[in-house]
Design brief:
Distance between the termini: 21 Å
Structural class: alpha+beta
Strand content: 15-25%
Number of strands: 13
Shape: globular
Helix content: 25-40%
Length: about 475
């Protein structure tokens, strides 16, 4: 995706004086480029661009792509570059935000001055962070399904959706089925798939080694495990008629295999997240060795917060909102820090409160998004609870139970492999441990004027018993 291209074409030399300020452009018609994940570009002719809102541009994109009304909730406009990604609110004016991009980079990124001056955002049409997965499963329109599938595939291939090898191979097989058609042993061989591996498997699995090693591989009789697994998973897919079709009985490939791909991605807790860059402290390796820091991605969704190892492509910490407290601090002459607090155990097995420090100039955005997601989740739960109560009072069955409710049969939790990339690796984190009652470790107590425990989820039952209940800048 050309994330380094400017969505609003730059002015020509004769227009520069007229476009030196937002108000001087008048109501001239200008071209706006909106990028999709599949590198397709939607070109829009827009009048009065400086005053056009993201909501109005969103409608123009929907009209150009002939998308149904459900796309209003499923997708949002983003301004994105390799240095920063921001989901625009409907009331935002993309042109003005684009002109303020350097200020946003100075505030929310750690890039150099040269990088700030050279960076240009693109306007992108992508999945909204606030679109619930349960609603995504109800989508029937193929154009919407296509966009959702392509974005999920892009995030998987780019390593933003870490998953176990077996799951990667299953998802790759579904992508093969959509891109290559039904399995044909004469056409779909190991050699034919080898040249297209990076279109089906994450990039970190498909990195080519030195030429000598590649030559040895070619001489050997066995394929690498991930290539064998992909081919076997592709071969094992059932014929399309064996799958259940849509509500009208259609068996289109996208309805069958694209939906299966999305459903598989829904098992990943960070599906649909917004991603932020940051760093955490590495545990000390020895008495004399300095620990340093580790680069991480912070993924935030409607359900929780996940710390992903940028290099190793696995989860370091996964917390649902019911399991954490958080705060954002920016002490004088110190870095922006997102604090995450959760239950844990000391090295001796004693229950303690654990604090994880995430260093990032985007910590303010993360904190605002966490707060907004909790508010949305609480509002949805309250609305669903009201629906259930009304249905109970009228004697009619409710169509939907609120999140976390006990209504209906509860499914057993999905088992995870002990070495799964989805499992938290708390032992790999450098955390601050303390107890709420008893002798505190004073030297590591965070300095702040307000109580650290003021930020927590209080609208739903919580398993985080150690935190006392107390009393924004939004990413989306």
């Amino acid at each position: 995706m050309e994330a380094d291209r400017l969505a609003v074409p730059p002015p020509s030399a004769d227009e520069h004086s007229q476009r030196s300020s937002v108000s001087s452009t008048g109501h001239r018609t200008l071209d706006v480029l909106v990028y999709l994940v599949n590198d397709r570009v939607v070109r829009l002719a827009v009048e009065g661009l400086p005053s056009v809102t993201a909501h109005e541009l969103h409608r123009l994109v929907r009209d150009a792509l002939r998308l149904p009304e459900c796309a209003l909730e499923a997708f949002a406009l983003w301004l994105a570059s390799p240095l920063l990604e921001v989901q625009l609110k409907p009331k935002h004016q993309p042109y003005k935000v684009c002109r303020q991009w350097q200020e946003l980079l100075f505030r929310f990124s750690s890039c150099s001055e040269d990088e700030t001056l050279e960076d240009e955002p693109s306007l992108q049409f992508r999945r909204s962070v606030f679109f619930p997965k349960r609603k995504e499963l109800q989508v029937q329109d193929e154009a919407v399904l296509q966009l959702l599938y392509e974005e999920a595939k892009y995030n998987l291939l780019e390593g933003r959706y870490p998953c176990d090898l077996a799951d990667c191979q299953q998802l790759g097989a579904l992508a093969c089925r959509l891109d290559l058609g039904p399995y044909n042993p004469e056409r779909h061989t190991a050699a034919s798939l080898k040249e297209k591996l990076d279109a089906f498997l994450p990039s970190h699995l498909c990195r080519r080694g030195p030429r000598l090693l590649s030559g040895l591989w070619r001489r050997g009789s066995r394929l690498p495990a991930y290539e064998q697994g992909l081919l076997q998973a592709f071969r094992a897919l059932p014929e399309e008629e064996e799958q259940q079709g849509g509500p009208c009985g259609e068996h289109t490939p996208l309805r069958t295999w694209g939906r299966a791909y999305l459903q598989k991605c829904h098992e990943l807790p960070y599906y649909g997240c917004a991603f932020f860059s940051g760093e955490i402290d590495k545990p000390a390796q020895s008495f004399l060795q300095r620990s340093g820091r580790k680069a991480v991605l912070v993924a935030i969704s409607l359900e929780g917060v996940y710390i992903l190892d940028s290099k190793e492509k696995h989860v370091l910490l996964g917390l649902r909102f019911q399991e954490l407290s958080w705060d954002h601090t920016f002490p004088d002459e110190e870095e922006h820090i997102l604090w995450l607090e959760f239950d844990g155990e000391s090295s001796e097995g004693t229950p303690v409160n654990k604090l994880l420090k995430v260093y990032s100039k985007q910590a303010e955005l993360m904190s605002g998004l966490i707060e907004y997601c909790i508010e949305l989740t609480a509002a949805a739960a309250a609305a669903a609870e009201g629906t259930v109560q009304e249905a109970a009072a009228s004697g009619a069955p409710s169509s939907e139970a609120p999140p976390g409710s006990q209504v209906g049969r509860r499914l057993p939790p999905r088992l995870q492999r002990q070495d799964s990339v989805l499992c938290s690796r708390v032992q790999h984190l450098s955390t601050i441990d303390y107890v709420e009652e008893g002798k505190e470790i004073r030297r590591v107590k965070p300095r702040r004027s307000a109580s650290f425990f003021g930020r927590q989820l209080s609208s739903a039952p919580t398993s985080y018993s150690a935190v006392r209940a107390a009393e924004s800048l939004e990413h989306g």
